[in-house]
Amino acid sequence: MSSFTRRVKEELARHPLTAPCCARAELRAFLEMRGELVLSAKLQRIIMLTENASTARRIFSLVKHCFALTPQVLSVRKRRLYQRNLFSVQIYGRETVFTVLQELGFLTVEPGEGRYLLWQRKNGLEKTCCRRAYLRGAFLASGSLSNPERDYHLEIIAPCEAYARSVMEVLFAFGLPSRFFQRKGSQVVYIKEGEKISEFLRIIAAHGGLLKFEDVRVVKGVRNKINRLVNCETANLTRTALAAHAQLDSIRLLLELVGLEQLPPSLREIALLRLQHPEATLRELADLADPPLTKSTVNHRLRRLNALALRVKNNARRNGERL
Ligand SMILES: [Zn+2]
Fold first, then answer.
1. Dihedral in degrees, nearest 10, Cα atoms 3, 35, 33, 11
2. Domain range spanning residue 95?
3. Is residue 162 included in any domain, yes or no?
4. Which of 76, 80, 140, 310 sees the fewest Cβ atoms within 10 Å?
5. Gap from CA of 247 to ligand 1 centroid (Å)
6. Do 25 and 80 have their domain in common?
């Protein structure tokens, strides 16, 4: 888990518990993303798993808040080396399990005979407050964020396509299109764009995380801008250097084949200045002229020198002279 994920989750786990509708929506997301149901003659349990102690406390508080129940919290030590411990928050007892499933929209009671309908309730998320809470729960349950210094990546892992689609629909309702792919039998819903991740953090009310994320984004943005400017500047310098190089070639050719004294005084002056100051800019050459010239006059005269050199060169070639 990235340090940024941990930071955002710790912040979300402290989010105040408010309306019961939202608490239920958040709990429902936990159940969809990380919930398990144990139903045997002896045991009836809802189990919600998490790697994070603060998230385990959050689930505990949500269950208490919604159902006035005290769930069991167990720490499950993983056998394999390097695997993190898991926390398992459990709601137990046949009646309780069925009530919770029913309240969260996973079951409906058939009147009479203790029969239930398995039914994933589609309503319950029509209010914006509840949709926010649902996304908060989904992120706490199985979401992660890359450290923004590295790259922009948000993902939420769902155990099946139906729940992945449910997360995607809610994201979409907030104007956040996402994509998904399969990884080891799970469905990974993800968002890659910095701007959208920022919006996601705003929606789930991770304000501290949002500030940190935006800080990094601004610094990165400024750095990119500077890089672009530097590249642009380098391109300009290269262009100037190439132009000066071509001018020097022309002048040397004229010097050799014609002699500078044959040139009109205005061109001769610029030719000499260029030879003496191979790296000077047009502006600098203009200032060095006596009397000083404008940049565009210097440019014009250098072009005339280039044209002249080209003509001399072509003549010489026609006359079979070696260059
Ligand atoms: Zn609500």
1. -40
2. 3-205
3. yes
4. 80
5. 74
6. yes
